[in-house]
Amino acid sequence: MDEKRPEEENEQLPPAEESKGHFIRLKTFSFIMMVVVLILATAGLTVFALTFGDEKAVEVNSPERREFQKLYTAYDEIQNRYYEDVDREELINGAINGMVDSLEDPYSDYMNEEEASQFQEGISSSFEGIGAEVQERNGFITIVSPIKNSPAEKAGVQPNDQIIEVDGESIQGFSTTEAVMLIRGEKGTEVTLTIVRGEMDDPIEVTIVRDEIPIETVYSEMIGDNVAHIQITSFSRETYNELQTAIADMEEEGMEAMVIDVRQNPGGLLESALDISNLFIEEGQEMFEVQAKGLEPEIYLATEGNKVQIPVTLLIDGGSASASEILAGAMSESAGIQLVGETTFGKGTVQTANDLADGSNLKFTTAKWLTPDGNWIHEEGIKPDVEVAYPEYASLPFIDTDLELKDGTISEQVRTAEQMLVALGYDVGEVDGVFEEEMLAAVESFQEDQELEVTGILTGDSIFALMDALRTKIEEEDPMLLEAKNLIMEEAGIEASEPETDEAAEETEEDSAE
């Protein structure tokens, strides 16, 4: 039955009609209320699902976000109108790389599946490559430090070397990950790096044979007078356990004081650095702070557990970065441990690696970290309490072993060889880059001492022997280590032992023979 118009509502109707009309209006109202309740219930369930369910509202609506419209348009234009077929995955990877690059942060990076796999290798037990930590700085791929006993170290690669080419291909403008992909490779294969070093006018080339690089990160030895030298080369998953083993071994050998060495240590896992810091800092003392955007600083305190109870010094240099600096800051400011050496690298940010669904990885800076006293050391580094420089000969460039340096040769390589021979105690006359009579005599003397064929010509094995002899001298006459040892002996009250005389040594040998 038709409902009445408004102007008819006041007319008198028979009882039956009035009752019937009233029944119809009640039914319509109930229906409308049921619809309203149903709509509200549905909306409520939807909001609940989007808020607490697996799919968030922002994900449902993300394709409609206005800031992405330009990106979609560009993607469609390239996909549909570019004159050649385009790989869709490469377009997406390129877009993500572009976003990361726009941050202008050398520590943030996007890695595809293959690159992410290699990144994981870097913190695992071993990988194949040359064994050097690299980083993009001001548009150049730069060596942070070579790994101890690696092919890179043996070839003479040094911190702050800038790699401009890999196998003749320019890597100017490459990201760190892109450069690593070129430099790494299978064991036994060769890679040639073109390097710019310091104030040298001409780039130098070095060919390195790749090898398996074991991530053994702790090396220990007694250096006399009951002092142990423990070197930590990086902070990986097993470093803390390796250090505990090294400390136990040194204790068995009578260790009464310890020199911890993080020179040329580019860093690694934050968790590892904190575990190691905890060994030297009393429970409840601050180790470091993390400051994320818009949040209050998160303070990390030392916890209970075994603590090192003997005097300690810490060795640092310009290759000590990131996790090494966290350790240095904590040991210095919360435990009063003396730092010896040179100012550290200066990396005061924290990165988070996020694994994506397809195996790729997005690593970017999520916070900055502060020392216990609230200092942000980014791009400034940590200064040592006792500054000790490397000897000048420690930074000499390597010499190309394919060269033939002989009487009459004039070159920068000759000057380098002269400086090396002088550091080893040979008289070359004037260091001027000219291979003359005195240089010839010095080379012949060196070859005789090394039991090499005496030719007076520096090439091949003679050049290798020269660089190896200099490396041995650097290790044996380490001024930073000697200073750190003297300081810690004084703190521990250890008196230096008298050097053994030749007669005493002969008597010891005779006793052993009997």
The SS-based structural class is alpha+beta
Mean of pLDDT: 84
| Terminal Cα span | 130 Å
User: pLDDT under 50 segments (min length 5)?
Assistant: 1-26, 50-62, 508-514
Instruction: Classify the helix fraction into a percent range.
Output: 25-40%
Global Rg = 34 Å
Number of extended strands: 19
Q: Count of helices?
A: 15
User: How would a textbook summarize the main sheet?
Assistant: 6 strands, antiparallel
Shape: flat
Question: Per DSSP, what share of the residues sits in E-state strands of 2 or more residues?
Answer: 15-25%
Region (Disordered): 492-514
Protein name: S41 family peptidase
Biased composition (Acidic residues): 497-514
Pfam families: CtpB_N-like (PF22694), PDZ_6 (PF17820), Peptidase_S41 (PF03572), PG_binding_1 (PF01471)
How would you explain this protein's 3D organization?
The chain crosses the membrane at residues 29-52. Residues 492-514 are annotated as: Disordered. Belongs to the peptidase S41A family. Residues 497-514 have a biased composition (Acidic residues). Helices cover 38% and strands 19% of the residues. With 514 residues, it is of the alpha+beta class. Strands 3, 4, 5, 6, 7 and 8 form a six-stranded antiparallel sheet that branches. Helix 8 links the parallel strand 11 and strand 12 (257-261). Helix 9 (270-277) packs parallel to helix 10 (323-335) and helix 11 crosses helix 13. Residues 1-26, 50-62 and 508-514 have low confidence and may be disordered.
